[in-house]
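Per-record layout

source: Trematosphaeria pertusa
name: AA9 family lytic polysaccharide monooxygenase
length: 308
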Amino acid sequence: MKVSSLLSTAVLATSVSAHTIFQKVSVNGADQGQLKGVRAPDSDYPIQNVNDASFACNKDLRHKDSTVISIPAGAKVGSWWGHVIGGAQSAGDPDHPIAKSHKGPIIYYLAKVSDAASAGTTGLQWFKVAHEGLSNGKWAVDNMISNGGWHYFTMPSCVAPGDYLMRAELIALHGAQTSGGAQFYMECAQIRVTGSGTNTGSNLVSFPGAYRANDLGIQVNIYDNTGSPYMGGKQYQIPGPAPLTCSGGNGGGSTDTTNPAPVTNPPVDQAGQTLWGQCGGLTWTGPTTCASGTCKVSSEHYSQCVPS
């Protein structure tokens, strides 16, 4: 069977009702409760237009209460995903928490607000606090499924105390070979960070606005020439800016230590950046030429060496 046929079969077989919803938070292992402090819709369908007006926290948010979840800076934070509200759609649901074919990254952003319980979702400035993509032959989604729907990250210890909306985002890339094929699942939790941090974020972005449909981590073929969804050893670039890091290397922008975030900058050849390595961006100070291939702009924060 041709690779194109393999890909088409995989996409068609999993394109219907194999979706997910972020609907619970845990803090240092303590489950905060179903839909407590999480704004969620009834629909588990993704958004596929990166310019959708509801791209920050999703649309038709029928589930919303006044809970504000307290999270100490430096805490282990969990997001729990389920196929539908409540979890499985039926007994033995093979698509809970999401279809295994829906490989991709999981990303977390914060936006500072005055009151998390009542804050709107438009016009906010977001900074990334953690992400996980493809590492050691596993996608973040693979790790989430193996954890029964839970995915974890460490809240950077330097985040300033106060109210925030926490945006948890999962991007399914099984159909991302064409523009508009990536599926975005996102919801927002109402949180209050505690501690003595002073950092209110950097590399701020807006939603919509942070992504473009043809960004390298959004329009991407994740399959190798056998149809395996692990990019044939190539590196995957997670969309958006780099996660917040704290001085001294103390708890910034990492997923749980059992699921480390991938290295995003491969070794640099003296004649220029290696294939798939970074070659540009607003804060990039490394090589801006490629030893092979062409430096392609993905966003204002990231350019990458790709085959010519």
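summary: DSSP finds two helices and 18 strands in the chain. The radius of gyration is 19 Å.
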